Amino acid sequence: MVFQVYPIVEGRISGLIIFLVALVLTVYYLQTKKVPYIRRVPAIDAIEEGIGRATELGKPVIASCGMAPSGIDASTVAGLGMLTYIAKLCARNDVRLMSPMGGSEESYTTMELARDLVETQYKLEGKPEAFNIDDMPFLSGRQFAWASAYCGMMLREKPATNIMVGVQYASAVYISEVGHEVGAMVISGTTYLANIACLAASSDYVMIGEEMLAAGAYLSRDPGQLATIRTQDIIKAVLMILVTLGVVGLTVSNDLVRVILSS
Amino acid sequence: MSFLKKKEFYVVLLIVVSIAIYIPYFFRVPQELINLQNWLVDTTVIIGALAVWVGFITSTRREVVKIQRRRRGWFYGIVILVLSWAMVIIGIGVGKTNVIFELLQRAFVLPGDSTIYAIIVFYLTSAGARAFRVNSFESGVLTLGALLLLLKQAPLGELLTPWAAPVAVYLENNVAMAATRVFSVSLAVGSVVLAIRLMLGQEMALVGLVQRVVRRDEEQ
Fold first, then answer.
1. Count of structural domains within chain A
2. Could you say which of A121, B11, B157, B175 would form a disulfide bridge with B151 (CB–CB 3.0 to 4.6 Å)?
């Protein structure tokens, strides 16, 4: 049994409520202009450390915004946001940034956007001449060919840091392990559940779950963007309470919470 | 066309497109609105297809320049150009189901993919060996869980330790599943909030054009 409310599509009431609550809370926090407390995320903080390491060692940084197999989705948006931040730091510290593009047929779209974003950061830092499009080559539209070429770049250039954020599939372990072999600090982040454990085993730092999606807001330190993270935390707390109530309810044969969430 | 330089223009565009997508998803609406939603989705597919060509042509130009200037690895540029254009011409000329195209796929592309995929197992082993060093209580628990799963998966383990399989199944179906659900829920919430951030024009990192426009406005 599920609740139905006309004209809402069946099974989408709870989704709509969550969406509207998130929207209202975000707008409310945007207006208050307060900077909420946000816990430290070691993997995101490590990016600055990784680029600092590259500056000291005089080695390049290699960074990827993922394979983008579905075009520009949430994970790729997060990956592009992160690549933009990395490009800004690299331009500021005169560190060479290499960003291998490709991995899927859809990644052509991302490549154009990524090149434009990185070039913009170099221009904003007043160093347009430091941007080299050859450091952002399109390696292949196939996952394993891209991964092999990515590893080849690492083996030849010996980067100080390898940062891979975005959609990563099986090839992620291959890339992160080669990164480890060449002595690079490996920072990774993915939303692909089956890969999180593999990356946790092979990376120095890993962004888990929604940490990657919140990275753009976290790095900006902008009250407007941080407000959305507060919203996220509130919704998560409510969902935790609902899950607990659901478990207790089902244990005593009451499926009210299940019905509400399925509606 | 000065409105194209305004940040507000892009924010309004984002909001209008988001509403046009979200409303037919959540509400029963007239067919016209559903058609509009479908048209927007189709437009993104067309833009994506055009971007593939833009990317392909950009890559070709890049490789041609590399070959002309005899930059490092220019020879590989020739290989890339020949192979990529051969695939495009054959693919468009004779179709993806043609025997020549299928032969290129089966003889070159698939064996290469499979080889690299197979190599991953060694990298997984080396990553696992590092991760399962027992130097704390947590890593001890992790190693114990991994050992039980190994005993369940390996045929010899199933024979020697039949008691391990039910324990491993319990760990997979309850402990690991609960953790996976936590990730799923947090990712779903994170995606919703990211969508709202984009919709409200707060996530500007993606829109490089807007960033430039804002900078130009500041300079003025």
1. 2
2. B157
- Using a CB-CB cut-off of 8 Å, the residues of chain B touching A235 are 189, 192-193
pLDDT digits (tens, 9 = 90+) for A147-180: 988 999 999 999 999 999 988 888 898 899 999 9
Same domain, A24 and A105: no
Both A21 and A122 in one domain: the answer is no
Residues of B in contact with A213 (CB under 8 A): 187, 190-191, 193-194
Per residue in B77-104, pLDDT (tens digit) is 898 899 888 888 888 888 878 888 888 8
Dist CA A171 CA A202 (whole Å): 12
d(CA A51, CA A86): 8
Beta strands per DSSP E along chain A: 61-66, 97-98, 101-102, 138-140, 161-167, 185-189, 205-207
The Cα of A51 is separated from the nearest Cα of chain B by a number of Å equal to 19
- A 10 A CB-CB count for A141 gives 22
Q: Which domain range does residue A150 map to?
A: 42-218
Question: Are A22 and A110 found together in one domain?
Answer: no
CA distance A123 to A196: 35
Please indicate, yes or no, whether residues A30 and A46 belong to a single structural domain of this protein.
no
Is B156 exposed, middle or buried (CB count within 10 Å of its CB: 0-12, 13-18, 19+)?
exposed
Q: Residue A70's domain is classified under what CATH number?
A: 3.40.50
Smallest CA–CA separation between A148 and chain B, in Å? 8
One domain for residues A31 and A144: no
List the alpha helices (DSSP H) in chain B: 7-26, 31-68, 74-94, 99-104, 110-131, 137-153, 155-160, 164-170, 177-199, 208-219
Same domain for A121 and A214:
yes
Say if A258 falls within a structural domain.
Answer: yes
Q: What is the mean pLDDT of residues A204-213?
A: 86
Do A24 and A103 lie in a common domain?
no
Say whether both A82 and A141 belong to one domain. Answer: yes
Per the CB < 8 Å rule, is A235 touching B193? yes
Which tokens in the block code for residue A202?
Answer: 């092979």
Share of residues in chain A with pLDDT > 70 (%): 99
Q: Which residues of A touch B131 (CB under 8 A)?
A: 200-202
In terms of pTM, does the model score above 0.95? no
Where exactly are the structural domains of chain B?
1-94, 146-220
Element (H, E) at B97: none
Dihedral sign computed on CA atoms, order B99, B103, B104, B106: positive
Return the closest-CA partner of residue A110 out of A68, A58, A145, A152.
A68
